[in-house]
Amino acid sequence: MMEDNSYRPIAGGMPRDLRMQCQAWLASTATLVLGAAMLVLPWNTLVAVPVLMLAAACLGEEGQLDGFPRREDRILMMVLMCQGMVWLALPMAHGEGLVGLYNAWPLWLAVATLAAFAKVRMTPAWLWAGLALGGLGAGSWALWQRVYEGLARAHGHEPLHAILFGNLGLLTGLLCLAGLSWSFARRERWPWSLLLLAGGLAGLMASALSGSRGGWIGLPLAVWVLYRGHGRRVSRGWRVVLVITLLALLGGLYATPQTHVAQRVDNAVNSLRLYMAGDDEMTSVSARLDMWKGSSELIVERPLSGWGERGYQSAMRERGAEGEQDPKLGRFWHAHNDVLDAWVKRGLPGLVALLALYATPLWLFARGVGVGSGERRALAVAGTLVPVTFIDFGLTYSFLAYPAGGLIYALLIAVLWGLYRQAR
C-alpha cells in the first residue's frame, strides 16, 4: 500500500531549484519596478508590483517570512483595508455610488503585496537599485524638460503634474539617501554608495526643477530622520562632503535663473505678505488659504458625516456665489490639504482612517531608526521617511486624493515593511 507521504507533487510540476529562481526573478523585478517606474513611467505601471509579487508567492514555500502574520503585520493590513473601506463606504452613504472604489483599490493591492511576503524572500538590493534609477531618470527628464523643451515646470505623466512629480522626486531622492546605511555595510560599498548618492541628488534636482515649493517645508524634519538613522555612523569627512554637495546643489539651483527656483520662492513670500496685508489678488498661496478656511467652516457644519465629493464642490461653489470666497475656488475638487480633504468629504471616519494611515507606519518603522544592522536601519529610515514626507506633502496639496498617490504610498509601505521584517 502506498504511504500517505510517498507522493508529493511539486507546484506546477516545476523542479524546486527552477521554482526558486523564477520566484527570485519575479520578486526582484517587482521591487525594481516600484522604484524605477514611480516617476518616469505611467503610474498604472505600478500595478505590475502586486501582480509580480503574487506570482512569486505562488512559487514559494511556507515560512519565508518568519511568523507571518504577527501582530504588527495584522495591524498594518487592517489599517490599509480600513482606509480602502472608508473610501468606498462614505461616498456610498452620500449617494455617490461606487465612485470611491477608484481610490480604494490601490490600498487593497498593497495588502495583497504585503501578504505575498509570507512566501517570498528577497534581497533589498533591487529596491535600492530601482530607487536610484528612478531618481536618475526623473532628474534627467526634468532637466530635459526645463533646458531643451523650455517648459516652465517639469512634470510627469498624467496625473503626475508638476506638484505630484516634484514632491515624489523629492521622496525618491530622500529614499536613496536612506539606503546609504545599507550600501556602507556592503563589500561593494563604493559603487552602491555613489549610485545611491547620484540618485538622491538627481531626485532633489527633479523636485527643484518642478517648481514645487510645498514639499520643501518638511525637508528639515526629513534630514533629521536621515541623521538619526545613519548620520552618526558616517565619518566626519563624509558628513562634510554630503553637506557641501547638498548645499552646492541647492545653491546652484537657486542662483541659476533658468531654473526659476528663486522666482518661485520669492513669489510665495510676496503672496503670503500681500494676503496678510488684506490684498484680494488671487495667488496660489491666497487660494490655498481661502480653501482651507472654507473647508474648515464646512467641517464645523458636518463634522461627523462630511459632505461627500459632490457635496463639497457644491458647497464651495455656493460659498463663492454668496461672496464668502472667490468664486474661482469652486472649480477645485479637493481642499489642497489631505487632512482637511478627508474630514470635509468623509467626515470623522475619514479623518481617523487617514491619521491611522500616517501613524501606523511611523510607529512600526521609527523604532528601528538608528539601531540594528545597516540593512535593517536603512529600511527603517526609508519606512519612516514615507509617512513623514506624505504628511509634509499633504499640508499644501491633497496627495492621497489621487489613486496614484495612494498606490505609491501604500506600495512603498508594504514593500519596505516586508523587507524590514526579513532583514537580520
Automatic annotation (TrEMBL):
Q: How does it sit in the membrane?
A: Multi-pass membrane protein
| Gene Ontology CC | membrane
Q: Which InterPro entries match?
A: O-antigen_ligase-rel_domated, WaaL-like
Question: For this UniProt entry, which segments traverse the membrane?
Answer: 24-41, 99-118, 125-144, 164-185, 192-209, 215-230, 237-255, 347-366, 378-395, 401-420
Q: Which UniProt keywords apply?
A: Ligase, Membrane, Transmembrane, Transmembrane helix
Compartment(s) of residence: Membrane
- Domain of life of the organism encoding this protein: Bacteria
Chief place of localization:
membrane
MF-aspect GO terms: ligase activity
- Any idea where the O-antigen ligase-related domain is? 202-355
Cross-referenced Pfam families: Wzy_C (PF04932)
Q: Which PANTHER family match?
A: O-ANTIGEN LIGASE, TEICHURONIC ACID BIOSYNTHESIS PROTEIN TUAE
Listed name of the protein? O-antigen ligase family protein
| Species whose genome carries this gene | Billgrantia pellis
